[in-house]
Write a structure and sequence with these properties.
heterodimer; A: ABC transporter transmembrane region fold; Rossmann fold; 6-stranded mixed β-sheet; 4-stranded antiparallel β-sheet; 34 helices; B: alpha+beta; 5 helices
Chain lengths: 882, 151
């Protein structure tokens, strides 16, 4: 990276900076004219002596002359404004472009940092540097050359003018500049040092925040909040002190500057006045010089501010850049270079004399040498800290050795671009990371290395894409189109999208994630327009499930939705809506407030009944729960009323008693009114929704659907036997009813019937496909640690690499799943080399060979049975330890 | 059957007769009522125990696995409690229980059960009485078996 800010600016914006200079220079004459013209207007046109005047050979009278000059003035104002507008926009654009380039450069460096470097820099610091710290640089870049040129030029012009008037006064005007020039950099130096300290400390602050977020569970689990807050306060205190000192020094500089600016007129008055009195200087000249001096202070101030900004920007640049150049950073070509097609790394793996040093220079892997045949399956076992994990990382080239070399199929891996190691080698580590996207995209990442086919026609706005691409080019950013097709079908071994989905489903089975994805898929939903085939089959499945349940005498386990019947296993709200709420207008918590719903209740004379039922529910809840401590889990599991609201309802019940239900204040009765909507008769068994109320809820259901106003049409998706319900999950669409409460094992038995129907209707793949669209959350937080490892394994297997390296990749799986997945993967990768660093030695049985690592070297290697059978072996010791 | 009827039924069970009705109502409200088809299995011998069942109607057959197949050792009826041993002493289910005569139960989870026992010592005493009675019966049976063997 360019070592100084100005080198960076000059290298990437030379042409623009020069253009900016030329533009600035061009604007000078117009500026001068616009200052000069008023004089002509006043002196010649208004005070008018030589009127009618000759104007470019045309004789004009006074009014016309005035109008012409005024018109000219207007044009100049426009031209000046135009210049200013254009230059400002241009400058802003230039600054933004350079900032974009810098950020891109920094980020691309982060991607190339040697892995051990991440032990030293925290995520918070890096984010702080790339986002906040470089931000002011953007604004500075545009001003970096043009501003001092413009202000310097103005300053110089005025100075020349003053010297022309009188050289003594000229000298007086600049007499204090040397003092300022000497003092200010000295003072500024201190501010700069403080500025550096401030930057460092703000980074520490971000680091602290980042750390607390990553370790939030520990903070809660160990009651560490006060310790964390104290630590944060300490850092805030340091920043406060630094900032305070910066303010003091900065404003002292400002004070000096202002003082000097005020002091100079003192010389003018005293020396100038003396000269005028003595007759050595005309009075007019003194006035002119004084006026000029006033103009002088503006550019001078600008230049001083520029100087401070310059110092500030330089510090920021230097401090950021030095952090982004750690030794061992991968050259950019290693990440950009492409390979010839069909490049393979199938062949023996030979590692010679590898060593890795820790931060103190102590070897943690020492002269490690090993040979692995092509297609051999090797387990690496040993105590933790014995180096098996490092060996795996070295072979995958995730970690570079400090000495020694590795070759695969005769290629020295240290020299290969990532296009070779990151495609032909598959690596899965113990802390599998899952990105905030869908399951599908997370797995596909394993085969998305470069854009392979242009984006299909009609994707986005072509003109906009071209413009974005051009801007990216001008800022030195990536020119790869995100909308292009990045998926390497060839590497995956499929030709079409459909085959790809099939392959993904197979891979899910290999890593034992198909069951989970299936469950997620059942809970997911589809767009019936886009996937009309699936929607149709779901409707068939709905029918088949009905028949199947009836055949096996299980029809009582599901209460179907029927427009003419009250569903006792659904809430009162669901019975009234007879549909799935979309958005929150008819959501369970808000439905009682909805004006339209209230209208429907009034129409069917249900309002009073709901009020009465609400009061009874509240009374029952108070009776049941009043004695329980507020944090009792029954509240969250069973109560209609939270523990905080319970006392309120006690008061409300008292009021209802006193005033009568119908005379209560609306806000009080509203609270009662919201309770009945949540009742599920079959579950709560409170016996409060009697036949008459049910009848009228059915009537309300009809009114609700008939009169539903236009603007509420999209807030609910009404149930229909013939239509797919886009707002409900796949499972709910097939069930089309409620699993009955109070029937033993209803959930399991219906689930089994459902699974059988899905299988019979060939919907399983479709369900898995929906499951693949599951959003995994930030850092895969919606998946378990085991599921994340499974995703990472599927990702590595997807592109069919020649060498697969697993580094305790199944550590988070339960032992049953672990053996299953391991066997599946070894079967799936038949004929390819597999190196697996195992957390437990006994898992090594299914491998061709076992290597035992201790103290950073291989102490033993051989067949599992041979080593286990030997009289004394390291493997035996490990197995005995388990 | 509504909550009221359930509470009435619970009050007639010796184990619960001394508890205030509002607490019984809470017990009924927080417990799931389950209906079974005949011969449906409540739980199998050897399963981990997570709940006890109060029989509200119908009957439950207690089966113990032997070498010659399962034998029915007892039949419980309305008002009896089944499955409490496994949750009291954290052992696997000691018998298999199947439903008879349109069984309906109130399923009391382990947590609710323990809370009930700690909050209402009367229940603990009743359970002790019941268990002691069972122990006494088993001892008698053992003595009889012994003397039969001796003779």
């Amino acid at each position: 990276m360019e070592s100084t800010l100005f080198r960076f600016i000059w290298r990437y914006s030379k042409r623009d900076q020069i253009l900016l200079l030329v533009l600035t220079a061009l604007s000078f004459p117009f500026l001068y004219l616009s200052l000069d013209l008023p004089k002509t207007i006043i002196n010649k046109a208004i005070s008018g002596k030589n009127i009618p005047a000759e104007f470019f050979g045309v004789t004009v009278d006074q009014i016309d002359y005035l109008m012409v000059l005024s018109g000219l003035f207007l044009i100049l104002v426009c031209v000046n404004g135009g210049f200013k507008f254009y230059v400002n926009v241009f400058r802003g654009q230039l600054g933004e472009r350079m900032l974009r380039r810098l950020r891109f450069d920094l980020y691309s460096r982060v991607l190339r940092f040697p892995i051990p470097h991440f032990r030293r820099v925290s995520q918070g610091e890096v984010i702080q540097m790339v986002t906040a710290e470089v931000e002011p640089l953007g604004g500075f870049v545009g001003d970096s050359i043009a501003l001092p040129a413009f202000q310097g030029g103005t300053l110089l012009t005025i100075l020349v003018f003053m010297f022309v008037q009188d050289w003594v006064l000229g000298l007086a005007a600049i007499a204090l500049y040397p003092i300022q020039g000497y003092m200010i950099p000295k003072l500024q130096w201190h501010v700069n040092q403080l500025g550096k300290a401030r930057v460092r400390n703000v980074r520490r602050l971000s680091e602290k925040i980042g750390e607390s977020i990553s370790g939030i569970q520990e903070v809660h689990a160990n009651d560490g909040a006060r310790w964390a807050l104290a630590g944060f306060t300490e850092r805030l205190g340091t920043i406060y002190d630094i900032r305070y000192e910066i303010y003091q020094r900065k404003f002292f500089i400002k004070f000096i500057n202002n003082f000097v600016a005020q002091l100079t007129p003192f010389f003018f008055y005293s020396i100038g006045g003396y000269l005028v009195i003595k007759g050595d200087l005309t009075f007019g000249a003194l006035v002119a010089v004084l006026a000029a001096y006033k103009d002088l202070s503006a550019p001078w101030k600008e230049l001083l501010t520029y100087y401070q900004r310059l110092a500030d920007s330089k510090i920021k640049y230097d401090q950021v850049v030095e952090q982004f150049d750690p030794p061992g950073t991968l050259p950019a070509e290693m990440q950009q270079a492409e390979l010839e097609q069909d490049f393979r790394l199938a062949g023996p793996i030979v590692a010679a004399n590898l060593s890795v040093l820790d931060d103190e220079g102590v070897p943690i892997v020492e002269s490690l040498s090993l040979n692995i045949e092509e297609a051999e399956r090797v387990a690496v076992v040993g105590p933790s800290g014995g180096g098996k994990d490092l060996a795996a990382m070295l072979l995958a080239r995730v970690l570079m050795p400090d000495s020694g070399q590795i070759s695969i199929a005769g290629e020295e891996t240290a020299k290969l671009p990532e296009a070779a190691t990151g495609r032909r080698i598959g690596y899965v580590g113990p802390t599998a990371f899952v990105f905030n996207s869908t399951l599908r995209e997370n797995i596909l990442l394993g085969a998305m290395h470069q854009p392979l086919a242009p984006a299909p026609d009609g994707t986005g706005d072509v003109a906009e894409r071209t413009r974005n691409l051009e801007n990216a080019r001008l800022s030195g950013n990536s020119l790869d189109d995100l909308a292009a097709d990045w998926i390497d079908y060839r590497a995956i071994g499929v030709d079409t999208e459909a085959e790809l989905t099939k392959r993904l489903a197979d891979l899910l089975a290999v890593v034992d994630l198909d069951g989970d994805t299936y469950t997620l898929g059942l809970r997911g939903s589809i767009d019936p327009e886009a996937k009309s085939g699936v929607a149709e089959r779901v409707l068939v499945a709905r029918q088949t499930l009905r028949e199947k349940l009836a055949e096996s005498g299980m029809e009582g386990l599901v209460e179907s939705f029927d427009a003419t019947l009250y569903n006792t296993n659904a809430t009162v709200a669901e019975n009234l809506l007879f549909g799935t709420p979309v958005g929150d207008r008819f959501a369970l918590e808000k439905i009682a407030e909805n004006a339209y719903v209230r209208g429907v209740l009034d129409k069917t004379e249900l309002t009073h009944d709901f009020l009465r039922i609400g009061r009874d529910v509240a009374a029952t809840m108070v009776e049941l729960f009043a004695d329980l401590p507020p944090d009792h889990e029954f509240f969250t599991q069973y109560a209609f009323i939270s523990s905080e609201d319970l006392p309120d309802f006690q008061i409300l019940l008292g009021r209802a008693e006193r005033l009568g239900l119908d005379n209560m204040a609306p806000e009080d009765s509203d609270r009662f009114l919201s309770l009945p909507f949540k009742l599920i008769p079959a579950r709560h068994r409170l016996g409060m929704i009697d036949d008459d109320v049910r009848e009228r809820i059915l009537e309300a259901r009809r009114f609700f659907a008939e009169d539903l106003p236009e603007d509420l049409q999209d807030a609910v998706e009404i149930f229909s036997t013939e239509r797919y319900n886009a707002a409900a999950s796949l499972q709910d669409n097939i069930l089309f009813g409620k699993i009955a409460y109070g029937q033993a094992d209803a959930g399991t038995r219906v689930g089994e019937a459902l699974a059988a129907v899905i299988e019979a209707e060939n919907l399983r793949d479709a369900v898995i496909e929906v499951g693949l669209e599951f959003e995994v959350g930030v850092g895969g937080s919606r998946l378990s640690a085991g599921q994340r490892q499974k995703v990472a394994m599927a990702r590595a297997l997807l592109r069919r690499p020649d060498v697969l390296i697993f580094n305790e990749a199944t550590a988070a799986l339960d032992s049953g799943s672990q053996t299953r997945v391991m066997a599946n993967i070894l079967g799936e990768t038949e004929g390819r080399s597999v190196v697996w660093a195992l957390q437990r030695a006994s898992l090594g049985q299914s491998f061709d060979r076992v290597m035992v690592m201790q103290g950073g070297r291989v102490v033993e290697t051989g067949g599992f049975a041979d080593l286990q059978g030997a009289d004394s072996s390291a493997l035996k010791a490990l197995l005995d330890d388990e | 059957m509504s909550l009221h009827e359930e509470v009435e039924l619970l009050r007639n069970i010796p184990l619960f007769c001394k508890i205030e009705p509002s607490k019984l109502k809470l017990l009924a409200f927080t417990s799931e009522r389950l209906s079974y088809q005949d011969d449906q299995i409540l739980f199998n011998q050897g399963d981990a125990g997570d709940a006890a069942y109060i029989i509200m109607s119908g009957a439950a057959a207690i089966l113990i696995d032997t070498e010659s197949g399962p034998i029915e050792v007892a039949r419980l009826k309305k008002g009896d409690v089944v499955g409490e041993i496994a949750i009291l002493c954290d052992v696997p289910r000691t018998a298999t229980v199947t439903a008879k005569d349109s069984l309906t139960t109130l399923k009391v989870t382990k947590d609710t059960f323990f809370r009930l026992v700690t909050e209402f010592p009367q229940i603990a005493v009743e359970i002790m009485r019941e268990l002691a009675g069972r122990l006494e019966r088993t001892n008698t049976q053992l003595r009889e078996a012994h003397s039969r063997k001796a003779s």
